[in-house]
Automatic annotation (TrEMBL):
It is found in: Cell membrane; Golgi apparatus membrane. It is a multi-pass membrane protein. It comes from the Eukaryota. It comes from Holothuria leucospilota (Black long sea cucumber). It holds the Pfam family MtN3_slv. GO terms for molecular function: sugar transmembrane transporter activity. The keyword Amino-acid biosynthesis does not apply. This is Sugar transporter SWEET1. Keywords: Cell membrane, Golgi apparatus, Membrane, Repeat, Sugar transport, Transmembrane, Transmembrane helix, Transport. The chain crosses the membrane at residues 6-27, 39-59, 65-84, 91-111, 123-144, 156-177, 183-204. Belongs to the SWEET sugar transporter family. GO terms for cellular component: Golgi membrane; plasma membrane. The lineage of its organism: Eukaryota, Metazoa, Echinodermata, Eleutherozoa, Echinozoa.
Length: 216
């Protein structure tokens, strides 16, 4: 079996699993019948990012990017529908989705009507998609700041951190395998933020264990 083909499918599977982390939030919404403890914008921004990377996959003829982002967008759209169904501010959330849809529509119109060379448009899409992903990966910085402030790492999810690191590493390997450095840059922050969370889990987790009384 071709190594690139195998790497492609492993990357698809891990990325979809990474996006399944929204399921616990949706289950919490369904059980509590409210959305007070769940953030809405991450679903929207991730969906927008999926659309941008799908476009990049179309322009680079990369089936891996296309399949991955179609599946992930479907998940994000499901999460958005569930959130809106139970939120008390439905009109406001619909307005946010409308703004995102308008931005994406304007972007798609630009792509289809632009007379620029194919390579030039591809580079522009890659830069915009990279920027959106790097912004998404910067969100854990608030989580890390809270850990430093409280000196408690219990809010950091070990499975999510492991999935994030694995996903970023796989896309990094894939970028080298396909000689597409556009895919490399957005994953560097993902690797660094995941390693930082692992370090905090180890450091503060060790301190908490030392502070617990012995049962022996």
């Amino acid at each position: 079996m071709d190594h690139l083909y195998l790497l492609s499918w492993i990357t698809v599977i891990f990325t979809v699993i990474m996006n399944l982390t929204g399921i616990p939030s949706c289950l919490e919404i369904y059980r509590s019948k409210n959305t007070q403890n769940v953030m809405f914008l991450p679903f929207v921004t991730t969906g927008v990012s999926n659309c941008l990377w799908y476009c990049y996959g179309v322009f680079t003829y990369d089936w891996n990017l296309q399949i991955t982002n179609v599946c992930c967008f479907a998940l994000q759209l499901t999460f958005i529908v569930i959130f809106i169904a139970y939120t008390d501010s439905m009109l406001f959330r619909l307005a946010q989705c409308g703004v995102a849809a308008i931005i994406l529509s304007a972007f798609f119109i630009y792509l289809t009507t632009s007379s620029q060379p194919h390579q030039s448009i591809t580079i522009q899409i890659g830069l915009i998609a990279t920027s959106s992903t790097m912004i998404m990966y910067s969100s854990p910085l608030m989580e890390l700041a809270d850990v430093f402030k409280t000196k408690n790492a219990r809010k950091i999810s070990l499975p999510l951190t492991a999935a994030s690191l694995s996903c970023s590493l796989l896309w990094t390997f894939y970028s080298f395998a396909t000689h597409d450095l556009v895919l490399l840059f957005p994953n560097i922050p993902g690797i660094l933020s995941s390693l930082a969370r692992f370090a905090l889990l180890w450091y503060y987790g060790r301190r908490e264990n030392k502070g617990q009384p012995s049962l022996v």
